[in-house]
Every structure is written in structure tokens, then in C-alpha cells.
Amino acid sequence: MQKYTLSQLTEETINALVTLKEQAEISNRWSNMQVPLTSEEGTWLEKIKSTLRERQLVHMNEATLWARAIYPLLILAEQRHVQAWTGVPLQATYPTFELEGEADGALAPSVGGKIRPPYLIVHEAKRGVDAPDPLYQLYGEMLAAAWLNWHNTPTLEQEIFGCYTVNDTWAFVRGVVSDIDSERPTFDIEFAPVYNGVLQAERIVEILKFIVAKHVNVHT
């Protein structure tokens, strides 16, 4: 069985491992994915936005940008036992391949202070001309997260959300993995519009809150 490191995944590798079905058009479902912010959350978000407007985000290093522009929005989506995490280890053993690595961030349950399988994976894109395409590493991270959720609660299909960020821009992805225990799983992908982390911060948090609320309600 071949083992793949998440950071080394490419389009060719993903297509060799699963049947990838990417929806060409932007899905309409994202327009209905929203949970309004509370007044307190709105106040905090305005503070975050006002700080970001005063900073030169393009010139920030990746760690600083993550701390100022990405992680604070994830925190606003926390609910009950679901919280924001960074440096999330992922390991999955499909019938014909293994995936191993670490996601930059996630929204996932906490049980006794320990992370449980995530609902949303976040990948921060690397900068530079030679930087790898962030989409396919995100696909690998989503596949690993879907397997972990399936291992915990086996169902015919596993829905998993992900997004990659480029500077302060957010690109959301919805995935459904089926036939997980087969030699060639199917991975259906839907894309959202791309959102600006300052100008459309409210919309980003509304989507994050929807994803969390959806899973919290299922497991209540």
C-alpha cells in the first residue's frame, strides 16, 4: 500500500487515487448557508476588520497573516464543543492508499481537551512562484478528514467542508466522499464564490457558523 504525504499531493496523484468529480459551476447552495452573527460577534468582527484595514496584509508573513486575518474568523464560528484548531494532524488508511500530514487549521469537536475528527479543514496557501497548487493538498486533507469521520460514524456518504486561503481571500469547497471502503472512492466537489476576508468577512463567518451549526444539530 502506497503512503502519501499531504503536502506532496498533486492533481495527478488525486486523480489516481479517487474518482474526482468537480462541479464546473458555482453551487447555489452557498447562498443559503448562513447563520447570522450575534451583536457581540458583530462587534468583535468590526474590531478585527478595522485592524486589518490598517495593515499591509500583502507584506505580512504567513504566520502573522494567519494569526490576524484567518484564525480570528474561525474563533467566531465556535459553538458548544466545536472549536478552532491549528496544526491539525491527519492520518487515513483507505483500502489502497494512506494519507498522512497536517492541516493548518480546522473547526472540530473537543472532547476532554483533545481534538476529534473535523468538520471543516483550512489550508493556508504558500506564497511564491514555485508554491504548489493549494487545491489538491486541500483535497487530500478533506479526504483524510472524511475517512476519520467515516471511521467514527460509518455512513454511505461523508460530507466534508474545506477552504484554502490566499492572503485574506477565502475559497470554500464542499466535498462528499462515497464508497470509502472500496478500492477507488468517489469524491464529489462543489465550489463556492471566492470571498474577501475584509470586505466580505461577515459572509465568511456566516458560512463557518452554518457548517458548525449543521453538525452540532446532527449530533445533539
Structural class: alpha/beta
Low-confidence stretches: none
Helicity level, as a percent range? Answer: 25-40%
- Termini separation comes to 38 Å
Give the total of domains.
1
Helix and strand run:
EHEHHEEEEHEEEH
Silhouette: globular
What Rg is obtained from the alpha carbons, in whole angstroms? 17 Å
- Describe the sheet with the most strands: 9 strands, mixed
Number of helices: 5
Query: Total number of β-strand segments?
Result: 9
Strand percentage lies at: 25-35%
Q: What average pLDDT do the residues reach?
A: 90
Topology:
Layout: E1 2-5, H1 11-17, E2 19-22, H2 39-53, H3 62-76, E3 82-93, E4 97-111, E5 114-115, E6 120-124, H4 134-152, E7 157-166, E8 169-178, E9 186-196, H5 201-218
Parallel strand pairs: 1-4, 2-9, 6-7
Antiparallel strand pairs: 3-4, 4-5, 4-6, 7-8, 8-9
Helix pairs in contact: 2-3
